[in-house]
């Protein structure tokens, strides 16, 4: 009697909920008789599994079905048919995970810190033999398939030599299986099918008919070798598709791959846990493709049911592109949380953190402040050290170095920007921007925020920059009248000078005005190509007056500290042509420091603002 299909030595068979596992066996037998099965554990025969009739034999063949094998092991199986018998000395029932993708799933971390093997964690190797799971899980050359091994398969001796001498080989698999063993209490199996440096085209399901000459075909052969379903798929890939034309079709290819695996394994709701690309150093001249793949991976969780994306951007590397041995335990914990929810239905595990909304700055209530709100962040957002990772970019993708601090408040990351900063309406916000970002924010579980591509968040507006260049008078120490009674001053006389101030827009005269009494006067030119309805946005910290073309426009004699950009405003319509703006401030014995002034067009539709094809105010002195 000989088993040909259905169960191998050391195998983990897949349980189906509380029903246990079903194992369908076939093989050779010279008898014509019933097939009886005995399954024994450490304490003898399992209940209901002593000489249980499971099939029949005849015409030199037998078939049997072991239905309802309870989770656990190691078990010993004895099949009897008349005077014949065959044994499987060791097998297990639990959960089996298909590992696929490229090198970060294959595992090339330094072997200085491998995880300790566990007797209840097994792996189906690239040779398609079950053994104790121990890094390295993947030895490509021992595969019988040309897509992995090339023209010649390694001998067992050669493969064992690699396992015992390699310096690289730690991956996420064994760490993940230990996490799932702790959560479920049942044996864990891993199917090793990943291959470093591979593209989505190489994983194309359309190549299935090539069998072992294609990665997809080889993966299916490994799955079919088990004769079993799997609990879920662990996928980490995308590095090789992060440049050129493959970037644009990554989502399409991933959706096709997920659908094909589910179809071919006859598991339409098969869970997938995928890893978002981490960081990369010293390659890829343009990080846009890398970020695009990350963004597509982030959004897959919203487009494909029973799929979760796990972030890895904060994990340490062992070289320029590969997650290191120290990072894999963290990644394994995150993947296990996702698998626990998707596969086991553990409602205590919420999805990975997700971007919910970005709240644009409020010039009245919170100038210079952006709130980024996330969902699924149990324990709130936190960071070891400074919270980092957010970047502002303009409409052309140019980085705007504007965020000087990030503070965390529950589910919200608050970004603090330079005082008085002018953000173009098409400013966008990213997390993990570029190839080598420093990202430090997680939730209370230790799950990292996902990288997200630049997201629009500003309300469309036609904001002009601050006035930063003015003709300035010397301090007028004995003004003839009070500021409230002052006629529009003229700055064409001797003593005035042209001064330029910082790009933050604050016209800061503190150095000249401290402890002084009197007035300070300013003048600038405003040129309009067409008539415009303009909102004058103001901020000041002392008594303030403003004239347009010599006529009073705005007066606040009660102005006091602090000086906040855009705190006050007044709107008017001006004709085309050149206009003179004049400002006067009372120094208030040095308490006044200066003012802000910028303009916003209020006569344009949102569509016109989005197009950006409109006339803008021009400044001069």
UniProtKB/TrEMBL annotation:
SUPFAM superfamilies in the record: SGNH hydrolase
Entry keyword set: Hydrolase
Any one GO molecular function term: hydrolase activity, acting on ester bonds
InterPro entries registered for this protein in UniProt: Carb_Esterase_6 (IPR052940), SASA (IPR005181), SGNH_hydro_sf (IPR036514)
Pfam families with a match to the protein in the record: SASA
Domain Sialate O-acetylesterase: 94-339
Stated name of the protein: Sialate O-acetylesterase
Species assigned in the record: Rariglobus hedericola
């Amino acid at each position: 009697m000989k088993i040909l299909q259905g169960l191998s030595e050391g195998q983990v068979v897949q349980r189906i909920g509380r029903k246990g596992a079903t194992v369908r066996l076939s093989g050779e037998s010279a008898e014509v008789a019933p097939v009886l099965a005995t399954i024994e554990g450490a304490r003898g025969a399992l209940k209901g599994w002593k000489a249980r009739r499971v099939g029949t034999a005849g015409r030199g063949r037998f078939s049997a079905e072991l239905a309802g094998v309870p989770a656990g092991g190691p078990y010993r199986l004895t099949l009897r048919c008349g005077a014949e018998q065959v044994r499987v000395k060791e097998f297990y029932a639990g959960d089996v995970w298909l590992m696929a993708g490229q090198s970060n799933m294959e595992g090339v971390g330094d072997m200085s810190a491998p995880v300790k093997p566990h007797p209840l964690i097994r792996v189906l190797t690239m040779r398609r033999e079950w053994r104790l799971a121990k890094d390295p899980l993947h030895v490509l050359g021992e595969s019988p398939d040309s897509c992995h091994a090339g023209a010649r398969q390694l001998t067992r001796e050669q493969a064992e030599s690699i396992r015992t001498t390699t310096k690289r080989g730690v991956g996420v698999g064994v760490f993940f299986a230990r996490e799932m063993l702790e959560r479920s209490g049942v044996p864990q199996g891993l199917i090793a099918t990943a291959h470093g440096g591979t593209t989505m085209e190489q994983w194309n399901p359309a190549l299935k008919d090539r069998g072992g000459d294609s990665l997809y075909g080889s993966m299916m052969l490994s799955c079919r070798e088990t004769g079993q379903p799997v609990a879920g798929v662990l996928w980490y890939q995308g590095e090789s598709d992060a440049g050129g034309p493959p970037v644009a079709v990554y989502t399409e290819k991933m959706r096709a791959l997920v659908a094909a695996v589910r179809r071919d394994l006859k598991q339409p709701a098969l869970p997938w846990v995928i890893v978002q690309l981490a960081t990369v150093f010293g390659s890829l001249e343009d990080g846009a493709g890398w970020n695009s793949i990350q963004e597509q991976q982030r959004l897959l969780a919203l487009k494909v049911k029973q799929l979760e994306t796990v972030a890895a951007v904060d994990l340490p590397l062992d070289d320029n592109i590969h997650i290191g041995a120290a990072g894999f335990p963290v990644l394994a914990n995150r993947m296990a949380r996702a698998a626990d929810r998707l596969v086991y239905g553990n409602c205590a595990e919420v999805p990975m953190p997700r971007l919910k909304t970005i709240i644009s700055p409020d010039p009245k209530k919170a100038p210079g402040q952006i709130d980024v709100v996330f969902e699924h962040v149990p324990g709130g957002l936190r960071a070891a050290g400074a919270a980092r990772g957010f970047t502002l970019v303009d409409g052309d993708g140019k980085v705007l170095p504007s965020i000087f601090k990030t503070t965390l408040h529950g589910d919200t990351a608050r970004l603090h920007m330079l005082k008085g900063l002018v953000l173009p309406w098409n400013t966008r916000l990213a997390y993990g921007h570029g190839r080598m970002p420093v990202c430090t924010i997680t939730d209370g579980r230790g799950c990292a925020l996902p990288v997200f591509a630049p997201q629009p968040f500003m309300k469309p507006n036609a904001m002009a920059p601050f006035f930063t260049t003015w003709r300035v008078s010397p301090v007028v120490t004995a003004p003839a009248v009070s500021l409230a009674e002052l006629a529009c001053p003229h700055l064409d006389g001797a003593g005035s000078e042209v001064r330029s101030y910082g790009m933050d827009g604050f016209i800061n005269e503190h150095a000249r005005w401290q402890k002084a009494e009197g007035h300070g006067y300013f003048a600038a030119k405003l040129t309009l190509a067409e008539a415009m309805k303009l909102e004058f946005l103001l901020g000041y910290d002392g008594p303030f007056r403003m004239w347009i073309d010599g006529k009073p426009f705005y007066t606040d004699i009660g102005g006091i500290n602090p000086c906040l950009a855009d705190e006050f405003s007044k709107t008017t319509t001006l004709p085309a042509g050149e206009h003179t703006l004049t400002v006067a401030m009372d120094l208030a014995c040095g308490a006044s420091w200066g003012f802000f002034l910028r303009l916003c067009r209020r006569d344009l539709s949102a569509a016109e603002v989005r197009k950006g094809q409109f006339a803008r105010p021009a400044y001069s002195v």
